[in-house]
Amino acid sequence: MAKSPQEEHPVKAFGWAARDKSGHLSPFHFSRRATGEEDVQFKVLYCGICHSDLHHIKNEWGFAMYPMVPGHEIVGEVTEIGSKVRNFKVGDKVGVGCIVNSCRSCDNCENDLENYCPKLIPTYSSINQDGTLTQGGYSDIMVSNEHFVVHIPDSLPLDAAAPLLCAGITTYSPLKYFGLDKPGMHIGVVGLGGLGHVAVKFAKAFGVKVTVISTSLGKKDEALGHLGADSFLISKDEEQMQAAMGTMDGIIDTVSAFHPLLPLIGLLKSHGKLIMLGAPDRPLELPVFPLLAGRKIIAGSGIGGMKETQEMLDFAAKHNITADIEVIPVDYLNTAIARLEKADVKYRFVIDIGNTLKHT
Predict the structure, then answer these.
(1) Can you give the residue ranges of the Enoyl reductase (ER) domain (predicted)?
(2) Rounded to an integer, what distance in angstroms lies between the CA atom of residue 142 and that of residue 223?
(3) Which of 86, 150, 179, 208 has its CA 20 to 30 A from that of 173?
């Protein structure tokens, strides 16, 4: 007979979980594995709420596994290390992002691209190597192989650094990989949410000219004044869009909802690149002719490998880049999810796990 989540492993754990596709989260007792030779165990202090958490708890992508403790922007303090752990010590400030394991031997893994490993194990709603469900960071403790743990630099506040483990690396990686990090370039950022606002910060730190592309005027002051974007473009304003045609070297598209690609392709220079980071729940229409007419590229990018994630955090520390956050107590979770669904957050909710997660 299958063991209950509480009995699967020796270490008692507690968090908030979704039990079904209603997505409602409530207190949940479960367990974590004992700290293995190469494992790091840490007390979770903060966990960001990513838009993909919302998709997962409601099974909008169709592969949710319940009961589900979400959360893959997890930061805290090391409490125990395995005998073979070399890079961490008790008391270190650390984080775990979207991955907790991979095969470690395929071409991707051997090239520090664990995020593209065909056998990668996501931080939650997946199956561990021992057959049990992975559970994420809306919980009191975390155990992970040290390879998938990163150091949080001392100068970064833990709460505002947490979202960098997903939103940060998801925007940093394509800016670097697709060569959109060269001073003097002009890039567009579509959607000023959790990913978009961090994309603006990284791009500006690279010395790139940034235009925020949004459907409404509501975020203009925020984009230009607070985040330091150079210009603001309303995608529904045909005159503005026409005037900006052919001016951008690249576009980072963070929108997770269905939206037209044709106007965005039009903004690109010849050889320009439109990089898709959002994950809409239905296919987008792909107009091919404007791609041919300018040798333009539409590409996708997903998070980053562990080496690059650490590099991103170190870069963020050097340039004082953090996410703009609203810190919430854990019992506000369902309200926060409802607000996230309406895009009513600037720009990332972060749960204060350390101070508000009380065993019930």
Answers:
(1) 23-351
(2) 35
(3) 86
pTM equals: 0.95
Each residue's pLDDT tens digit, 33-50: 999 999 999 999 999 999
Neighbours of 258 (CB within 10 A): 11
Same domain? For 19 and 161 the reply is yes
**Is residue 235 domain-shared with residue 151, that is, in the same domain?**
no
What is the distance between the alpha carbons of residues 12 and 122, in angstroms, rounded to a whole number?
A: 21
Total tally of structural domains belonging to the chain = 2
Q: Are 175 and 202 in contact (CB under 8 A)?
A: yes
Residue 349 and residue 336 in contact, taking contact as beta carbons nearer than 8 Å: yes
Q: What is the CA radius of gyration of the chain?
A: 20
Q: Does 157 share its domain with 22?
A: yes
Is residue 179 assigned to a domain? Answer: yes
What angle (nearest 5°) sits at the alpha carbon of residue 329, between those of residues 359 and 70?
75
Q: Are residues 159 and 218 in the same domain?
A: no
The domain in which residue 281 lies consists of: 167-300
Same-domain pairing of 207 and 190: yes
Residue 308 placed within a domain: no
Is residue 211 situated within a structural domain?
Answer: yes
CATH number for position 108: 3.90.180.10
Cis peptide before 67 (omega within 30 of 0): yes
Given a cut of 70, whether residue 1 has pLDDT beyond it is: no
**pLDDT tens for each residue of 277-298:** 998 878 999 999 999 999 999 9
Geometric angle at alpha carbon 359, from 357 and 360, rounded to 5°:
120
Contact 72, 138 (CB under 8 A): no
